[in-house]
Amino acid sequence: MTPLSRSKTPPLRPWQVRALAALEHWKGGSFLISAAPGAGKTRPALEQAKRMLKDGRADRVALVCPTAPLTRQWAQAAGRLGLHLVPDAESPRPPKDFQGIAVTYARVAASGEKWGSLVSPGTLVIADEAHHLGEDLAWGNGFSAAFKRTDKLLLLSGTPFRSDATPIPGMRYDRDGVVVPDISYTYADAVRDHVCRPVAFITYDGTLSWQSGDDVIESSFDTVLSAREAGRRYRTAISTDLPDGMPRILREAHEKLAETRAGGHKDAGGLVIAADGHHAKAVAKLLREITGKAPTVVLHTEARAAQKLAAFTDSREEWLVAVNMVSEGVDIPRLRVGVYATAAKTPLIFRQIVGRFVRAIPGRGQDLSWVYLPADPILRDHAENVEGELRHVLRRGLDESVLDDPVERERKERDPEEEGEAFVPLSADVVPQMTLFGPPPGEPGGPPAAKRIVPSFPSAISASAGAGGQADEEDDEDVPGMPAYERRALLRDKRHRLVGDLRRRDGLTPAEINIWLNRETGVSRVEDATLAQLEQSIELLLDRLTARR
Fold this sequence. Notes:
The chain contains 16 helices and 15 strands. It is α/β, with parallel strands linked by helices. It folds into three domains: 14-186, P-loop containing nucleotide triphosphate hydrolases (Rossmann fold, 3-Layer(aba) Sandwich); 192-451, Rossmann fold; 484-546. Strands 8, 9, 10, 11, 12, 13, 14 and 15 form an eight-stranded mixed β-sheet that branches. Strands 3-4-2-5-6-1-7 form a seven-stranded parallel β-sheet.
C-alpha cells in the first residue's frame, strides 16, 4: 500500500507538544485531553497512536466517536499522517493492511459483548467526545463491555461533564465531582495563542407581547416572570411572524455577513440555529426574502443531512439554517456570523453552538465572529459567565488552578410544557442592546486590542461535534492522495462489478467466482482482503473476462 503524501503536514502546536510529552509517561489506564474546538485534539491523539503502534505498546487502534460521518473524517485525518483506519467498521479487527478502525458508540453498544471477545488487550481505544458515553446508559455499558480487555483508553472532550451527574467511563473526578483532565487547553488559551477566533455577542431586547390564555402580557427581558411566561417571552422573540423581532435580527445579521465578506473574507458564511423543522423552514423563507437567495437548510432527520453540511462547508453559499446539527464534528471554519434561535438554552448547548464560530483559518489572522441572540436572561448569564471566566484567567496570568472551578449544572433544556391556556405571539420590537465583550479594535466604541475581552470556555466547550459533522482536526492544507479506506471501497466496488460481468458471461454463480478468487489470492473472505489482494483479484477477473473462450 502506498502511503499518502505527508509533505504538507503542519508542525505540532506548542500545546500539542506538551500533550505528547505527558503521554510519553502514560503507562496505561485512562488519559483525558480536554481541548477547545479548533485547538486540534485530533492531532496528538493520532500521533500518540502512531508512536504506540511503532514501539509495540499497541497492536491496533479503535477510534470511537458519536456519528458515522465522523468515522470517515477521522479516517481521513489519520490517513494524512500515514495511519490507516477503516471507517464505520463492523468488527474491531481491521484488514491486515490497516492499523485500526473508526466506529460509532452506537455500533459498539449494539455488539458490546461480542466485541469484548474480539478486542485484543493491545488495542488502543480513542474515545472522541467521550462525554457522550454518559448520555445514554446503553452506550456507556456497551463501551465498557466492548473494551474490557484493554487498559489503554485515550479520552478526548471539550465538555467533560454531564447534566445528569452520570459518571463518564474512564474519567477521574475530584471531591466535588468535577472531572480532572490530564491535559487541558482552554478556549482562553486558544484565543491567547491565536489558534481560535474571539466571538462577540450582540443581544436584542425591547417590548415583547403575547397572549397567554385570556391575558395579554407585555414585557422586556429585564422583567422577572414565571418559568412558563419567561419561556413564552423567548418564543415570542424567536417567532418568525413578528416583523420587528426575529426578522429584524436576521436582517442585521445578514448586513454583518455582507460587511464581513466585503472586508476581505469573501466566502464567509452564516448559521442560524433554529428551534425545530417548522421553525427552520420559516427562517429559511425569511432569509430568502432578505438576501434574494435560498439558504441551505439541514434537518437532523434528513437522510442526506451530512452530505448537505459537507457541500455547504466547501461552497461559497451565504447562509445555513440547521436544527440539531451543530454539536460535535460540525467543522465549518468559514462561519463568521451566527443567530441563536433555538429553544435549547443549557450551558452545554450554548457552548457547543458558540464553538461553531471559533475555528481560525490559517493566513487570516484572528478574525472576529459575531453571534446574534435574544437578550434572554439565561443566555446572557451564559455569556456573562464566560466573560467572567476569562477576566479571572487574565488576572491570574492563565493560572491552571481555574480549571478546578466547579462546572455549573445544566438548566432545564427546553421551556416548560405548555398546558391548557393558549399562547399566541403578538408583537416584538427589539433592538441591539449591547455587544458583549465589545466590538473589535478600531471600530467605534471598541477597546484597545490589549484589553479587549473575548468569551472563554475553560474545559467546557465542545468540538466537534455534531450530530453529525467533522473531527476536531488541524487546519491542514489539502494533501494529494486518496485515503486508504476510500481506495478500498473503490476496489471492492470494481471487484463486485467484474464478478457480475463474469457471472452473466459464463453462467457461474457469485459463490463459485468468489471461492475461486479467494483461493487464488489467499484470503478466506473478501472482507479480510488487503488492498494488494483486492487488486490481484481484479487483475484475475480482467484476465478471465478478456481471455478467449
